Amino acid sequence: MRLLDRFPVSTALLRRLAYASIISNVAIVVTGGAVRLTASGLGCPTWPRCTDDSYTTTAEMGVHGAIEFGNRLLTVVVGVIALATVLAALAHRPHRRELVQLSMAVFLGIPAQIILGGITVRTHLNPWVVGLHFLLSMVVIGFAYALWRRIVDPDAPSVPAVPTPLRTLALLTTAVSAAVLVVGTWVTGSGPHAGDHGAKRNGLDPESISQVHVDGVFLLIGLSVALIFAFRAVGATRATRAAVVLVAVELSQGLIGFVQYFTHLPALLVGAHMLGSCLVLLATLSVLWSTRERRLSPVPTPTSASAEDRVPATA
Known about the structure:
Shape: flat
């Protein structure tokens, strides 16, 4: 700790690192999708080595090995950024315990992802494990976003920025958004992009589970639109803006989803849909964050002498 005291980290630098952590974790979701969409999921057929004799890809493994190994290397970059963020949170002055805890949550998510990625390979791309791998990334992104927002918040108790019923509606919208993400992994596990031509599917009927997913999306959009009108009705400008952005992201994501479904799931659109899932999550968290705020209590300044002070001293 004494060494960290000698090199204090500014709030601006810590926030940049937290933002970089968000971006890098979103990027690894996209590159992980590229691994699956190019059927490179078993490009490195074992773990933790890439082959039985090498930790790196070989020329004989071709492009699939290069893509899978490249994604593993990106995990190292994500981990380095997360570690740097932890050290920055420790060196930040004034020291804030919550920032350290959030940065540690992001950092610990990286080895958890590495282990789960190894299980994914060892189970020959079991679709349920692949889905968990994606959902864990969503959790890590959520912690990174919370850190990024919390850095600029003062250390003060949070207070409602909207009435309690609207806070409850925002929480319900967040829960539905999470459910849509979960069901989306089931849709993916039933579809054609398995990550390898020999990988099994989850056995769910693609059309039926896709319909469940679409129903969830319609519910999510309906709740999000309701939030716009509700926030506007109470004059919550910041929350209204966040809800408008959420609806715009949801509509864009929904359009991509419909187009990819009716064009038989082209890989490029599926990859864009995975990126959109991350953006929906971030936009949802932005709405939830806007329903509360932290404000330091103003320090009272004396405007006039008190009556007691005005009484002249007597002998």
